[in-house]
Amino acid sequence: MRMSNTIHLRKGSDGEHRDLEAWLYRPTDEDRRLPHQHFPNQLISPLHLTELGVMHWEIDADNWQTDPTFLRVKSEQGYVFTETITVAPGALDEYEKKTHHFFQEHLHPYEESRLILEGSGYWDIRDYNDDWIRFRVCKGDMVTLPPGMYHRFTVDINDFIKAVLLFKETPTRVDILRPDGDDTQARKEYITNVLDKYNRRL
Ligand SMILES: CSCCC(=O)/C(O)=C/O
Ligand SMILES: [Fe+2]
């Protein structure tokens, strides 16, 4: 569902709600930390992200541990473990190696769930037709990518993001690069449960 070049705001039950800003990624060899938008920009609707399985909530990042939305989502989704990560030069060991790794197309056999406490960055996710969709996250965004969804992550030109990682089970990372992820149960279930539901095919 491609949209015109406008930013859409809609009201949530708790007041003004800011949707994730998402657009069709323009593939170039430029710095991955740049927005990579087409001209004119081709925005992607929140519904499109939802259909692909992305979930988004807004959290009071300064008081996240007591934020009612955070507590509700944590309970509903069954998150048990949390870890905090700061992705910034000097704050993350092996910054270059790890940021290169985050930007390699991969999937996880579990939900990727992150709450952004400070800073900003971009997730790229694969559309039905294998195009990249990029969405921006900043302070207060809590996002979840479903198990089996191919994606990658980069900081933006500010080179700084601090996030809470939420896990349902063990907080050990399992990153499976494409195409190795194709044969995983998580990938098969993603295609069946998420893509087939909307009669979409990769
Ligand atoms: C901002 S969280 C670090 C990136 C990450 O953990 C991941 O898996 C990206 O896809
Ligand atoms: Fe990931």
Question: What do these coordinates show?
Answer:
By secondary structure, the protein is of the alpha+beta class. 18% of the residues lie in helices and 35% in strands. It contains four helices and 14 strands. Strands 1, 4, 5, 6, 7, 9, 10, 11, 12 and 13 form a ten-stranded antiparallel sheet that branches. It is globular, with a radius of gyration of 16 Å. It starts with a strand and ends in a 7-residue tail after the last helix. 26% of the residues are buried. It binds ligand L3FJYLFB and fe (ii) ion. Fe (ii) ion binds next to loops.
Secondary-structure element order, as H and E? EEEEEHEHEHEEEEEEEH
- SS class: alpha+beta
If you compute it from the alpha carbons, what radius of gyration comes out, rounded to the nearest whole angstrom? 16 Å
Averaging pLDDT over every residue, what do you get? 91
Q: Total strand count, please?
A: 14
Low-confidence stretches: 3-14
Helical amount: 10-25%
| Total count of helical runs of at least 4 residues | 4
Which molecules are bound besides the chains? the ligand CSCCC(=O)/C(O)=C/O, fe (ii) ion
Distance between the termini: 15 Å
Biggest sheet architecture? 10 strands, antiparallel
Strand content: 25-35%
- Shape, per Cα inertia axes: globular
